[in-house]
Amino acid sequence: MAKITAVHLYLVNLPPKTVRTDAIQSxxxxxxxxxxxxxxxGSEGIGYSYTIGTGGSSVIALIKDHLAPQLPGRDPACxxxxxxxxxxxxxxxxxxxxxxxxxxxxxxxxxxxxxxRADLPLWQxxxxxxxxxxxxxxxxxxxxxxxSALVEQTLAARAAGFKxxxxxxxxxxxxxxxxxxxxxxxxxxxxxxxxxxANQAFSVSEAMRRADVLAGVNLAWLEEPLPADNVAGHTQLxxxxxxxxxxxxxxxxxxxxxxxxxxxxxxxxQVDVARVGGITPWLKVxxxxxxxxxxxxxxxxxxxxxxLCSAVPNAAWLEYIPQLDDVTAxxxxxxxxxxxxxxxxxxxIAWDWPxxxxxxxxxxxxx
Length: 367
Known about the structure:
Domain Mandelate racemase/muconate lactonizing enzyme C-terminal: 147-244
CATH topology of the largest domain: TIM Barrel
Helix content: 25-40%
Shape: globular
InterPro entries: Enolase-like_C_sf, Enolase-like_N, Enolase_C-like, Mandel_Rmase/mucon_lact_enz_CS, Mandelate_racemase_C, Mandelate_racemase_N_dom, RHMD-like
Strand content: 15-25%
Organism: Silvimonas iriomotensis
Number of domains: 2
CATH architecture of the largest domain: Alpha-Beta Barrel
Number of strands: 14
Distance between the termini: 18 Å
Radius of gyration: 20 Å
CATH class of the largest domain: Alpha Beta
Mean pLDDT: 97
Keywords: Magnesium, Metal-binding
Number of helices: 12
CATH superfamily of the largest domain: Enolase-like C-terminal domain
Cofactor: Mg(2+)
């Protein structure tokens, strides 16, 4: 039985390669807390989470001061027990974004260790449900782009083989959103999927109004139309809208997803492995969604979600937003719009450690 003997912490900033602006915010930089656990037999596991520009130092502080000290001496195979113990150790700050992101960095490292120990790719260890997943891109759909660029970049995405594209909505007037989306739809045709994302910008009444008009664009889903804590509003909207309603990137526990599912407040589950607290709770949400015949289309972190999507049968889409290219030796494999999970044991992310060491803003070792 292996025992954890050391925990190494890093914080790396990864600025986006393109301007990313939506209805309420901009993606400033990916603050990336990285956890590397080492065991007494020399085995190790590496995990991470992220922010989009604020809170990274708080995540690191929570891990360093409160969570990492609980790990030495633990058996890393007992992932569920460790996750539960860490959750209750920080019970006063859960459920919350900082706690979930901190838990995720550790939990993904433990699952990496477990898959490496089993000599299996993560997606096979967790179920091996499907060997590839369709990919849609968000990189050409940001709200600040003029209509001409929106059309041009969506056409380019289709030419590159993507199966769909997500476009941001939330312009001050509905008419502008409508013009932009109709222009894109006319350019790409009806057999290319278009998704839209409002990033929690609307009231219930405005969301219902916009959903009525946008239904004519033949959209795959309307994402985060309302503030994430408004389950009642989403329930009302989901019953009203002809467009499927997608939520999940701003939910931080399986219980919050359970509330949405029980109230029939959405039909697309966008559970984010970092924001929900790691692979352990991600699997609970994905399987809960499967039991209710709901699709999982996770938010961001494609380098990790490609394995999780391949692990479960109800994952319908992988979101393409490349962010780890500068600190990994190879990108994820995408051919003809389909992503294939790694063959390597573990998470299968080929970290470039010399680059990570050089770019680390913070390092700490607990042993």
